[in-house]
Amino acid sequence: MSSITLLFLALSSLSPVLSKSPTCPSTPPLTPPTCAYPPEPYTIQPSNGKGLGVFARHTLPAGTIILREAPIFTIRLPNTTTTPKPTYPMPQITQLVREQYALLPEPSQHEVLNLHFHAFPGEFDQGPGWDDILGYIFRTNAYNTGAAIGLFPKIARINHSCRPNAAYYWSEKLGQRIIYASREIAEGEEISDSYISLLAGREERRKKLERYGFTCTCAACSQTALGLAESDARRRDIGRAFTAFAGQLDLEVALPDTRVARRKARSNARASLELAELVEMEGLADYYAQAYKIVAVSHARVGDWETASVWANKGFERRVMEDRESGWTAEMWEMTSGFIERWKEELKVGGAGGV
């Protein structure tokens, strides 16, 4: 038998195997691992009467980080006046913004141009630099980033509320603006933060919001006439109380040494609890830590170290939620630790404390 015949027979014996469909090897080749990252805790979708908004994809407990975003670009505003309150003419802002915008890739440029903006009647007609929508987009949506002003396209989608469920801070270390849940947010609930100070009545708040081009209709602004009057009064009382307590928040607590001073200290302690109650009643989570610190210091000044420790710790927990690396958080940790030590000393000697 020739060698050619032997080769043919060998190939013929293999033909049934070769005709079968290929099968995967029992041990797959090495491939890069794929990770199924959890989806963002929010979605961007239409919000009734507000354009687009940001909504919770699932329930978000208080303190949950919702969004971290670095600015798509920043500018430093020029001080063009020598008055105590500087002004920033639109033409100069627009020029700075357009320079940064030109450096962006095309998808990022589209993202910027899709943002909402507001211009007051007649502004577009004031001449060069006033007729460019980029300046208005920036003015409507920009946030402070330490020494500069930055634009955050995703965060800009978060709508305002006078009783917000989220708050934010700028992390210098990360170079990001961080949005977190200031209270529990239900699945499907719109996420909101505040564009302005909230310690004013509705009409004053609406006046401040005119620069954004909308009239606020949040839950706080849409109450009955009686409910609104009560809410406005509480907010004004809160603002006055914060002002009154502003000079009494030193970490070094000295107990009052006269009868009049002790009476005043006891009155302040009672007033501080009323303040915290008002802040919580209004749901002004941005102000919780400040109110809790006032309660803690006010009770330390009357030697009630137990109450002072409890409220200082509440303030510390809020500061951790806001920004665990901030100086305010470190301050509240120092205060809480010091008050607890005084409370321990009081328990050792069996004293009730107080003045």
From TrEMBL:
Family annotation (Pfam families): SET
UniProt keyword annotations, A-Z: Signal
Domain SET: from-to ranges: 37-196
InterPro entries in alphabetical order: SET_dom, SET_dom_sf, SET_domain_protein
Leader sequence residues: 1-19
Superkingdom in the source lineage: Eukaryota
UniProt KW Signal keyword: yes
PROSITE patterns on file: SET
Protein name (database record): SET domain-containing protein
